[in-house]
Amino acid sequence: MPAKVLDNSVLVLNRYYTAINVISARHAFTLLFKGAAEVISHEDDQSASYDIVNWIELSQLKTEFPDPYDEWAHTPSLQICIPRIIRLNIYNRLPQRSVKFNRRNIFARDEGQCQYCRKKYPVGQLTIDHVKPRSLGGQTTWENVATACVKCNTMKGGRRPEDAGMHLAHKPVKPKKSPLLKVKIKSEKYKSWRKFVSEIPTNGETNGIHASLNGHS
User: What is the distance between the alpha carbons of residues 65 and 96, in angstroms, rounded to a whole number?
Assistant: First the structure.
């Protein structure tokens, strides 16, 4: 199976249909083949669930009438449609209420836009800037970091924005909801998430899911 396709995002629901996490398609297929999850297909305000056997059968039908946003994982004998949503069979917990502080979420919060020149860049051309430099006592927190392109970060150097004659597009704040989900649901590719994501408080962590699969409720 092509690695790029298996890196696609899949929304995870707990057994009560509450959104708790986003994982890779690779991880989702592992859970499906273990029998720990089922696929949730949500189209035209109608939802249906499928175990992996039935999902493979449905995938064969979908090859005849594919959706323009369908993506496929290939084996020597099968084409399997990448699910957009799965539901865990034994996991009851709700998502954690704090957004994980990491580069991916910072870039997603700022929507891939340099907060100084206001231009959008690929992730590989973005850096994280300390608004108040660490050399001046600035902390590494949501409220003191901003997405910056390499050029703007270099231009600002170890100065405050006002000292460098630069201005932030938005005041950095700690997000209350998962920034990644905010970005994803804008895409038609992930439109089936919208019914569930509106209720998500933050992005959950996979540690709890692994604990559940090891026998903890």
Answer: 39
The helix/strand/coil state of 86 is strand
Same domain, 70 and 117: no
Whole-angstrom distance, CA of residue 2 vs CA of residue 25: 11
Q: Which two tokens stand for residue 85?
A: 């949503």
The confidence score (pLDDT) of residue 179 equals: 83
Total domains in the chain come to: 2
d(CA 115, CA 170): 7
169, 58 contact by CB (below 8 A): no
- Measured from the Cβ of residue 95, the count of other Cβ atoms closer than 10 Å reads 20
Q: Which domain holds residue 148?
A: 103-156
pLDDT recorded at residue 97 = 62
3-class SS at 4?
helix
* Low-confidence spans in the chain with pLDDT less than 50: 1, 199-217
Q: What is the DSSP string of 141-167?
A: SGGGEEEEEHHHHHHHTTS-TTTTT--
User: b or e along 55-85 (b: 16 or more beta carbons within 10 Å of the residue's beta carbon)?
Assistant: bbeebeebeeeeeeeebbbeeeeeebbbbbb
Distances in Å between the alpha carbon of 64 and those of 77, 88, 105, 169?
A: 16, 29, 38, 47
Collapsed DSSP state (helix, strand, coil) of residue 17:
coil
Whether residue 118 lies inside any domain: the answer is yes
Six-digit token pair at 101? 């502080």
Q: Are residues 109 and 82 in the same domain?
A: no
